[in-house]
Amino acid sequence: xxxxxxxxxxxxxxxxxxxxxxxxxxxxxxxxxxxxxxxxxxxxxxxxxxxxxxxxxxxxxxxxxxxxxxxxxxxxxxxxxxxxxxxxxxxxxxxxxxxxxxxxxxxxxxxxxxxxxxxxxxxxxxxxxxxxxxxxxxxxxxxxxxxxxxxxxxxxxxxxxxxxxxxxxxxxxxxxxxxxxxxxxxxxxxxxxxxxxxxxxxxxxxxxxxxxxxxxxxxxxxxxxxxxxxxxxxxxxxxxxxxxxxxxxxxxxxxxxxxxxxxxxxxxxxxxxxxxxxxxxxxxxxxxx
Length: 289
Description:
By secondary structure, this protein is an alpha+beta fold.
């Protein structure tokens, strides 16, 4: 018997077996599981990359501050009075030199980073004060009638453990924060200054708008006066009321604990970070007691 040619075979004989509905659902389920497993890893990798960028930013800011200090006879960019609309705040004094790259003032994990990135050199200088992602240690700027900001003359005993610059919040809206032009200016950030006590009490939501945040998971990145970059676990700090004295803080050489006694302040001693270490000018001890 003569065999049928390929063109004469039944169409059913040429058709490949199709996937069943069960098989399709199984493939979709497997793909969904793989995506679910992959997304957290990608998110964690992105957060880690952003954290690395943030630390790089702090190092760049630290170098600019050191150059400013060397060129200013030991003085950091002093700020006599800090207001929310402060025009001549500390980082403005660093630009355009020695801080040529102004983009380092925006932390990639800052939810309001675009507020800084959208600024133009022609904008109202008062818009700059609260737009930075980083704040300067206000205790160095204000204590001892401002003389502590001359760190060559009043260098702390432990510069590697003395706060200089850190991530600053708030990182969420507490109030509309709109300007006269109707534009959203974001939350206030105390003119980009780290206040040793901004009135925050975890038991009372209306006490103040704390700058302390947990921007990088459980804490923030910190630049010390010794030009090292480290992290501070702020999630524990924000759970506790601010106090005047901490034994661990005092044992680490905290000047506020050992010299002032009655000044409430945030405590970062668990990470060996302090507002100032060493003796304060006598006038500061006398006026604050």
